[in-house]
Amino acid sequence: GGARGGLGRACAGAARAAEEDTQAWAVVNATGAVNDKMVLTVDSQARFTNDASRLGQLIVRPSVGWRLDSTTTASLGYAYIRSTPKGRPTTHEHRVWEQMSYRLLGDGKGVTLTGRTRLEQRHVEGRDGTGWRVRQQVRVTGPLNDGVRGVAWTEPFVGFNQTSWGQRYGLHLWRSFAGVSVPISKTVTLEPGYLHQRAFRTGPDAVTHAAAVWINLQF
Fold first, then answer.
1. For a Cys staple, 129 with which of 51, 80, 103, 163, CB 3.0–4.6 Å?
2. pLDDT at residue 11 greater than cutoff 70
């Protein structure tokens, strides 16, 4: 009984085991209105990995959006992702994606709940197969003082298929954030905070603890 109990505890411990990394993420998100209906957005990210000692991933993600009403926007975008994992080859990923962003509760001034549903088609240079996945973000903001708002969001990533280059079927990534939104001017807002990410893998999960800041620009 003791041996079996010890084995069970060891298996449970292995299931919970994770490789952890401390990172720093810097994101610049620029949005400009073309007219009353159309908006253009460019999102660029630098993710510093391995205890924030090196640039591990670079993302550039332009998109065009159409405002369906005052709280709902449909978008079509592209993303380029350059990943340089330590000890492994650099990869170049290209994505096409479709998105709906919408308000669920609130008026944007008090406590407000919003959602973002994104469908992605992922391609990696030199590898066969297209990875399909959906990302569902739910975000809550609420007023603190002097225009500063508290921000928290969570976003699971679910794959619809598997590929030879690493896309996994089912829930394979979960990302969450808690921080504040600080208005710097009428067109610039900073969102610093803590980001937690877990990548579910066949071996030990990969857990990221990141100091993250979003620099949001409105034109």
1. 163
2. no
